[in-house]
Amino acid sequence: MIEISKEVGIDMGHRIPDHASQCQNLHGHRYTVTAVATAPQLETQGAQKGMVMDFGFLKQALMHLHSLYDHQLVLYQGDPLAVLLGLEMPDKYRGLVAPVVLVPVIPTAENLAVFWFGIVQEQLKAMAWRDEIPSEAGLIRMVVQETPTSIAVYEP
After folding, report:
1. What is the DSSP string of 110-136?
2. Beta strand pairing status for 100-103 and 2-14?
3. pLDDT in tens, 86-109
4. Strands in 41-147 per DSSP E
5. What phi and psi values does residue 93 have, to the nearest 5 degrees?
């Protein structure tokens, strides 16, 4: 089995509500997000002959993730701070505070690894349906590096 990986940087703010230390405050990180894909064998024909899949397709899936979360403030949808930041204001005032993205999980590195795995996996599945990538190739791991020394790895 051969694995390939691609990474992208995401600059993002977040907070961990109810956390007992500084992480309960709004703060940000330069995340390094790595997607790892594999296939039982390399392609034997066509434009991707000798590959798990073209690195460009893995990059495309990661850039979709990047477009959703880079330079955003990400809050858990149950975070009471979301109301204070104007998410319930009329539309004409909503963008004055910060671009805010609500997610269904508390945005810890561990939860983001699982959540982002699903987003990237769906992008790759759509490409496989369009026969852009080999059908046997797939995402196997998502690595979210929150700081140089803090890394979460999700591998279903």
Report:
1. HHHHHHHHHHHHHHHHHHHHTTSS-TT
2. unpaired
3. 655 555 555 555 578 889 999 999
4. 72-76, 100-103, 138-147
5. -105, -15
d(CA 156, CA 154): 6
What pTM, to 2 d.p., does this model score? Answer: 0.90
H or E element: which one contains 92? helix 91-94
pLDDT grade for 71, boundaries at 50, 70 and 90: very high
Q: Where are the domains of the chain?
A: 2-73+106-154
Distance, CA of 136 to CA of 18 (rounded, Å):
42
Domain covering 2-73+106-154: architecture? 2-Layer Sandwich (3.30)
Contact 143, 41 (CB under 8 A): no
CA atoms within 13 A of residue 146's CA, in its CB half-sphere: 17
Q: What one-character DSSP code corresponds to residue 139?
A: E
Radius of gyration of the chain (CA): 18
Instruction: Tell me the two tokens of residue 137.
Output: 């190739």
